[in-house]
UniProtKB/TrEMBL annotation:
Protein name: Acetyltransferase
Keyword Transmembrane: no
Classification of source organism: Bacteria, Bacillati, Bacillota, Bacilli, Lactobacillales
Pfam families: Acetyltransf_CG
InterPro entries in alphabetical order: Acyl_CoA_acyltransferase, GNAT_YJDJ
Organism annotation: Levilactobacillus bambusae
Amino acid sequence: MTIIEDHNRDYITTETGDLAAEITYIPLSDRVWVIEHTFVRPGQSLDLSDRLINHLVLQANQHHIQLKVLDPYTKRFLAKHPESPVDLWSPAALTKSGKEGVSK
């Protein structure tokens, strides 16, 4: 299964073209993305979400994008894989909007 990059999301489809898994993110700026949600269709392997997370982290690193994380599954995954260079963010950190919401 191939990862497809789309506008603010990466996803994987089944052989029949149905959505198998996806990860969505919100660009706060040209240099900051917030991972919002991961989804895996029931009956599909959770490894698909892990592949999507790793793919998005690789994309961000290649383009010098800082990732912030709201999605609970992604937070747990990254906590178990500390080698991933991602700055974790709690939902409470998004009390401001726009560029002000990027500062810690």
